[in-house]
């Protein structure tokens, strides 16, 4: 079988390796299990589970891209509909998860929504892992270039500032620096826009006061849209994905729809709709595929486990480490497929060599992501809670003074 074929077998083998690695980690390192809540204890257990499939799907998507690049010298979306959609549809569903969770929370809390905790938690969720990754990128660029400045130091500092804002300018004239991480940070710009615009959307749709407030909020949303997309304009069809999550937040609050979504028929419909998206559409960010993905996600958010596929322990652990998996897989691919072979006597263009390295990447990705979750992500989230507590204590002390 040709590695470049449209067969889903390669993806199934990759998932099998990842799930097996996750299962083995949970078995031989029982301490990991305390980070997993029991399926019944999590309000959105199915959503937690689906994250594991999505993050790893982006990895499979980028492995397909790198295979094509090795033979053509061009980075592009795979011609195979399945291998294109396993990444694109995963990103669309990730955006839906963000829209669903935070719009749903805003619907519940309304004016009691804790904006301070929200803002601090988002910073401490995104950056603790991203900063070490950025250091690895900078180190790799200068190591390859022999520790010389091809741009003025101030220019390099500006380029690094761009990366800190999730843009990906070339660092020190290293061509296509973003390729070192498969350019994955483009999605974080969309996440940041949603976070920043959320209070404005809330004032427009949830607690409106006057037409003037609505106009000012809409203007603010537009200005944010231009500011966040200053270098590379945010695409409206990508932002539509968040609306799918917002729709799901309303869906699950309708008793009839929620009850139907937990039936066997709904699960079958969700699987068929997902199959249609990943086999019949070349794009995910269009009206019809997004509508189908919204249906799929609404059923999952209502509590359907897709016949147990979303509540497997190994999958739930992959969901826990999904941010690490998503953020780090590009650098791992670049390192294992493009850099390490330069020092070894084999050719990654050879199918067997590529498959063996890809298999190794599958296992390493889960192991590394588990470690970074435990020692970087988790402490980062805890630090965010401490910062919120400190800020509140400081505010209270000032109020009493």
TrEMBL record:
Keyword Transmembrane: yes
Record's keyword annotation contains Cell membrane: no
Domain of life: Bacteria
Family annotation (InterPro entries): Acyl_transf_3_dom, Acyltransferase_3
Transmembrane segments: 12-29, 50-70, 82-103, 124-144, 188-207, 214-230, 236-252, 264-281, 287-311, 323-342, 354-376
MF term (GO), any: acyltransferase activity
Domain Acyltransferase: start-end pairs: 45-368
Keyword field: Acyltransferase, Membrane, Transferase, Transmembrane, Transmembrane helix
Name of the featured protein: Acyltransferase
Organism expressing this protein natively: Pseudomonas versuta
């Amino acid at each position: 079988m040709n590695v470049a074929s449209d067969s889903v077998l390669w993806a199934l083998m990759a998932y099998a390796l990842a799930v097996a690695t996750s299962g083995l980690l949970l078995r031989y390192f029982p301490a990991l299990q305390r980070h997993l809540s029991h399926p019944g204890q999590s309000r959105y257990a199915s959503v937690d589970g689906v994250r594991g499939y999505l993050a790893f799907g982006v990895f499979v998507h980028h492995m397909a891209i790198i295979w094509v690049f090795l033979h053509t010298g061009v980075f592009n979306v795979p011609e195979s509909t399945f291998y294109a959609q396993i990444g694109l549809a995963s990103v669309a569903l990730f955006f839906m998860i963000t829209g669903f969770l935070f719009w749903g929370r805003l619907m519940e809390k309304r004016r009691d929504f804790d904006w301070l905790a929200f803002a601090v938690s988002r910073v401490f969720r995104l950056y603790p892992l991203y900063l070490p990754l950025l250091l690895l990128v900078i180190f790799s660029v200068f190591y390859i270039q022999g520790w010389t400045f091809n741009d003025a130091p101030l220019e390099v500092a500006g380029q690094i500032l761009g990366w800190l804002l999730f843009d990906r300018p070339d660092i020190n004239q290293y061509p296509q620096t973003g390729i070192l991480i498969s350019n994955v940070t483009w999605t974080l710009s969309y996440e940041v826009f949603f976070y920043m615009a959320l209070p404005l959307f809330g004032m427009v749709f949830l607690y409106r006061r006057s037409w003037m407030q609505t106009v000012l909020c809409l203007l603010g949303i537009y200005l944010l849209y231009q500011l966040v997309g200053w270098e590379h304009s945010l695409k409206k069809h990508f932002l539509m994905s968040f609306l799918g999550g917002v729709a799901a937040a309303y869906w699950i609050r309708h008793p009839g729809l929620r009850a139907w979504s937990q039936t066997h028929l709904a699960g079958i419909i969700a699987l068929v709709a997902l199959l249609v998206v990943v086999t019949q559409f070349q794009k995910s960010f269009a009206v019809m595929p997004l509508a189908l993905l919204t249906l799929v996600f609404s059923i999952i958010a209502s509590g359907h486990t897709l016949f147990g596929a979303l509540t497997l322990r190994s999958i739930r652990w992959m969901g826990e480490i999904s941010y690490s998996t998503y953020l780090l897989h590009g650098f791992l691919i670049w390192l294992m497929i493009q850099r390490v072979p330069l020092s070894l006597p084999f050719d990654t263009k050879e199918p067997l060599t590529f498959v063996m390295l890809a298999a190794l990447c599958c296992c390493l990705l889960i192991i590394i992501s588990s470690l970074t979750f435990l020692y970087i992500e988790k402490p980062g989230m805890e630090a965010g809670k401490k910062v919120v507590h400190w800020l509140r204590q400081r505010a209270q002390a000032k109020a009493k003074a």
